[in-house]
Amino acid sequence: MTQMRVFYTLLHFPLLLFLTPTTIFGQDNWSNPNTWPDGQVPNHNENVVIPKGKTILLDISTANLGSLTVNGSLLFKDVDLSLPARWIMVHGLLQIGTPENPFRSEATITLTGPNEDFNTMGGRFLSSMSGGSLQFHGQSASKLSWGQIDSNLAIGDSKLKLTRDPIDWRIGDHIAIAPSGYDPFEAEEVTITGINGRTIYFSPALKYEHFGELQEYEGKILDERAEVGMLTRNIKIQGAEDAMERRFGGHIMIMKSSGPIHVEGVEFTRMGQPGIEGRYNFHWHLAGDRDGDYIKNSSIHHGLQRGIVAHQTNNVLVENVVGFNIQNHVFVPAEDGNEVDNTFRNNLAILVRKPDEGFFAFPRDGAGGSTQGEQRVAGFWMRNPHNNLIGNHVGGSERGTGFFFDIRGRGKEFKVFDLLPREVVFSDNVAHSCSVPGYLGN
Question: Is 85 strand, coil or helix?
Fold first, then answer.
């Protein structure tokens, strides 16, 4: 039987009303038994609630919690930490680092719960609502998110040279190399074993060739050099270890009444819940105007559902994010069709995969053998072009496309021409190695 761990605020006692919240509560360490009402640090499967006005410093790794509700503030101390929980709901502040002092250590949040439906959020979720703010600032935001190779790579090669300086790349980091040609599954994931200037040594050796030269076509330069994306970040949010086997990962939902959402230097893996609408890796859900929100300099890999989704949400920034081995669509600037002024800039999608048979979240899109929606995956999929897509690359989608404007399925009340003459910014975007149905033997 799970237990509920709740603080009792001192504001209930009239003799203390003259004290300020800071004086009453201060900042208490999670590891201190005196922080907790019964004098014991939360244990396995306990449901923990941090009330409004209370600030807790997470200074030790926790047991696998039943749930965590943050109405006050939970701050991560800059030491290696792990926080597993069935689910996490934030009405206050969940903070890992700040822009001025980014988190330098390793922090891992693991979403471990069963397939349930708690408060319409489902299971294995991290959500923000009712003023809840997520502030994740990892030092690894300084890493070069992605570059391109500057010469061809052959089968058996174990080093490459980048066109850009590999800022803050380290031995042990994982990188993804985009495919060349027409087979998206020729993308490869390797581990860095050495760095010398722009030359990167890695293991294992390559199984496929990768193209790394500029071409000229009708007097114009054509750049289809294989991209190399950084996957490793020092803040990690992930589904449980059984996510891939059970086809059930974690998911993140940002609701309309949330506080500011600032995410950088974060790695998301084993996230997304295939076959379920709205259960994506990172998802602004019916969030309205979110001017100032961003996710940048981060990675999403081995995802079971859509990557980053703006759903009835405007004015968010998605920048320098690498998506690798994601099912469905990686970047969705406009899910319903009424989303405007979202900016997706300098992002990279490698190996976009079709959902497995029987795991379509929107099965109506597949009726009659349609090639719409999930039946034709894309690095970028949108139902409204009135968003800003600048300098993005897609390297490989399974029987799909790079950039797909899908007018089908939008609400009848929405007409794209209602937004004109709103400016449409679509520039310097590149797609290659997409095996579109009906072409090249696919």
Answer: strand
